[in-house]
Amino acid sequence: MPTAGERAGDLSDLGVSIFNPCNGSNCNIAPADRQQFSGAVIPTAQLSSQAQNLLKSIPQPNITTATGAVPNYAASGSGIVQSDSFDARVDRYQTDKLHMFGRYSLLQVDQTAPGAFGFEAGGPNFATTAFAGAASLRNQSLSYGVDYVIRPNLLADFRFGFFRYRVFVNPSGLGTSPAKDAGIPGLNLDNYYTSGMPRFNLTGTGGFNFGYALGTNSCNCPLNEQENEFQWVGNVTHIQGNHSFKVGADFRYAQNLRVPSDSHRSGELTFDATTTQGPNGGGLSLASFLLGQVNSFTRYVSNSTEAAERQHRLFSYAQDTWRVTPKLTVNYGLRWEIYFPQYVNGKAQGGFQSLATGEVLTAGENGIGLNGNVNTALTHFAPRLGIAYQLAPKTVIRTGYGRSYDVGVFGVSFGHNVTQNLPVLANQSLNPANPWLAVFTLANGPQALDPTTILASQPKGKTGNPLLPNGVSPNVLPLTSDNNMRLPTVDAWNFTIEHQFTPSTVLSVAYVGNHATHVTPGGTNYNINQPNIVGFGTLSTNQRRLFFQPFGWTQSIKYFSDDGTLKFNSLQVRGEKRFSNGLMFQGNFTWASAFDFANDYFFWNHDIDYGRENNVRRFVFNLNQIYELPFGRGQKYLRNVSRPMDYLVGGWKLSGIWLYQSGIPFTPSYLDCGRDEDTGPCRPNLVGSASISNPSPQAWFAVAPAGTSGTGCTATSAATRELNTNGCTRGPWSRPSAGTFGNVARNSFFGPHSFNADLSLTKGFAITEKLNAQFRAELFNAFNHVNLGQPVATVDASNAGQITSIATLSQMRRWQFGLHLNF
Q: How far apart are CA 746 and CA 491, in angstroms?
């Protein structure tokens, strides 16, 4: 957090030179021509009054011993979660041949959680909540089923299902206008959708972020969403000899209404060190913030809350389970999946972006259907094969292969893609022509935008539809050359051997693998208008964008692509002791290898983004057990005690869930990326070994050592870790040449392991014949183990390699007591 001195403009304690981006009223001065702020102090007259007002809403540092860029603020807190659920089921045995059932379920979950800087200022979420804001979720499901025995070897069944997902998410401080109150125009525009604290993101050394947004505290807020799905399923099973044939059909109708804030509607403002860097680097995002120079900006803007998608899906299959011999069973089948193109619920309730012509194709206008004229693909066939063979009386081997399809993530083939385009919604995206420029100042605010009317003033393209305006980031669907949808596809296979050692003990060892194609790199989308690194330093950022030359677009373009792949291979060992002698346990060990592509630079160079999949751990071991304590009536000990004594000592169970996981992968970076590149990943060169013998929270890996000189480094009067010039080498790290990426591989380093044990002690009481109770004492993280978060990955930062927080969703020891009544 900024100290009192830093808030007043004195940034000398951060040890970085800062430069004035302005000469009088001209704030477009190139870094080579900028004047350095003497002593790294910004004159009071140049401090942004808006920034000063915003700083009043965030707390002062509270770790008095921290200096410089070392984290100087600690906060703890928790959220409140209230969960209620209800289930009702009716079964009717109509005749020996006809059975029916009906079921209704409801789940209501409400959550509120503050950010680290309080409810209004927001800021980072706490690890125990992984969220800040207020959320309300309601799930409802209804199902009806009937099965009928036509004859002993011919059966039919039918199912109807309905599911509704309803969620509201809001920032804390809903209805307030902190940005407007601070003097920033054009952000807090109403009392609901654009209310609350915008996201202010200060990057790099001395940086921090506050407000509400997905990137700050996982708050997609405000969010108003309702999904409905209706499902009709019918199956017929025919048993003939050693074959069991089965055919069926599954028809689904999906509805989706989503009014989101993937980019916070009151704005997401980024401040970068490049805005105050000089001829040889330097610069601080905090200096850019204090000067009110916004480096980039994004927000969602819409007037409609009714635009929704619809989709029909039809699946059919045929399969046969063939018992070839008493020891060999083969299951094979084929599934045909048809996903009809999504369509919107009315004219002008969605838009389809054409990259070929640059036009926005408005649904229901100028010959564009409500489905965007997308064709239906009829080629999604999914074969399945499974084999089971009894190798010995107590040993079985199983193997299988199957293909499956998916609708994709976040609107690839259905969801909220086309209803988050013009003319419904505009994702305003302002980026500088060169990385060191500002897009606006806090005093001026962003330019206004009306998604409903902006297309009317746009020139027309080749087919008579309006061209996408500059500064609006569209969503683009992945389609084949014949305008069909191509779905994410997964081919999966496995081989398992299982052996029963005793009547209650089983061990299995399995190889499980899969290969996914037509998936989106990075999981959701990538910017297809990202600048190429080629030409950096000679061409402007915009000149290196793919769509700048033909259409003048400088904004990001979210391409929901289908050109990524994923590989997963694993060894899975499972052991189980079924309940006997009062003891049951089950344990699983997984060794996993998963590689995919990120979306940092995928469009221009796939290989740079290849690496271990985010958040996939190499080793995971979990064990769960239940042990009935052998005390009380009918047990091994104290079996003849009196009834009152049995109430005290009998009926106790000790249960536990034990989990050990290896670390999550991460990628090192370095400070002065903004001077060497304006696109792609930020990675240094690794020129030695970064391993250390005893990693600790103070030093998790070998970082750039502090010094006044180094191989190829610019000499300094004070010791620094900074790789302060291209080719500068300190320890195992070296700064790459400008316009290049470093050689350290994506996700090639690993964070701390995780260990957790949750234990519970329960006791049952028979109060009457129809009434019984259960007392539960539950202990979470029983051994109070500190599960550490990820280390600071910036190898030349002042706190490089240090771990300053616990892992997301981890917690320290917590007791919980409960009493259940059953009647």
A: 25
Length of the chain: 823
Residue 804: pLDDT above 80? yes
Q: pLDDT averaged over the chain?
A: 94
Q: What is this structure's pTM?
A: 0.88
Q: According to the 3-state scheme, what is the secondary structure of 589-645?
A: EEEEEEEEECCCCCCCCCHHHEEECCCCCCEEEEEEEEEECCECCCCCECCCCCHHH
Name the token pair of 662.
């290896």
Beta bridge partners of 489: 405, 517
Q: Virtual CA dihedral for 819, 821, 822, 823, nearest 10 degrees? A: 170
β-sheet with 268-271: strand ranges across: 209-210, 199-202, 268-271, 296-302, 425-430, 472-473
Which tens digits make up the pLDDT trace of 402-427? 999 988 767 678 888 899 999 999 99
- For every residue of 801-816, which 3-state class applies, written as one string? CCCCCECCCCCCCEEE
What is the phi/psi pair of residue 417, to 5°? -75, -60
Alpha-carbon separation of residue 565 from 442, 516, 614, 795 (angstroms) = 42, 5, 14, 30
Cis peptide before 459 (omega within 30 of 0): no
Query: In percent, how much of the chain has pLDDT > 90?
Result: 83
Q: Collapsing DSSP states into helix, strand and coil, what is residue 203?
A: coil
Examine the pLDDT at 592 and tell me if it is beyond 90: yes
Q: What is the DSSP string of 661-717?
A: EPPPEE--B-TTHHHH-SSS----EE-S----SS-BTTBSS--PPPBS--BTPPP-S
